[in-house]
């Protein structure tokens, strides 16, 4: 979304094979949705072509907060963590706390023909769906 030129902030993600998506706070007027979808698909393919390595780090809560705090009100609260460290995964330059499995680089998505597959707006949220096209 950032590369596509929107200021929408991510609020939720579901990254499993059966229906993966990322939700962003905001809305997109109906007439503008096809152009945004096309732009997102183009940007996604650029990221795949760039073959950006995924970086995984174990950081202190403080360092994780500094790295992931991209807005005044971050949606991650590291102060409530029972652990003193957080696993941070940086995909395509975007760090986020995550304990899941990830591709080694964005280029790994090329062989499986991944792409942005849809865009849906509802109740102040924009859901960007992705998967195998």
Question: What would you say this structure looks like, in words?
Answer:
- The protein is of the alpha+beta class.
- It folds into 2 domains: 1-51 and 109-133; 55-102, 2-Layer Sandwich (Replication Terminator Protein, Chain A, domain 2), CATH 3.30.54.
- The chain is built from 3 helices and 7 strands; from the N terminus they run E-E-H-E-H-E-E-H-E-E.
- The protein has helices at residues 33-50, 61-68, 108-111; strands at residues 9-14, 21-25, 55-60, 85-91, 94-97, 114-122, 125-132.
- The chain has a 4-stranded antiparallel sheet with strand order 1-2-7-6.
- It is globular, with a radius of gyration of 15 Å.
- The mean pLDDT is 87.
Order of helices and strands: EEHEHEEHEE
Number of domains: 2
Strand order of the largest sheet: 1-2-7-6
Given the C-alpha coordinates, what overall shape results? globular
The low-pLDDT segments are: none
Helix content: 10-25%
Terminal Cα span: 19 Å
Rg on CA atoms, Å = 15 Å
What is the average per-residue confidence, as pLDDT, rounded to a whole number?
A: 87
Structural class by sheet pairing and helices: alpha+beta
Largest sheet features: 4 strands, antiparallel
Taken as a percent bin, the fraction of beta residues is 25-35%
With helices defined by DSSP (H or I, 4 residues minimum), what is the helix count? 3
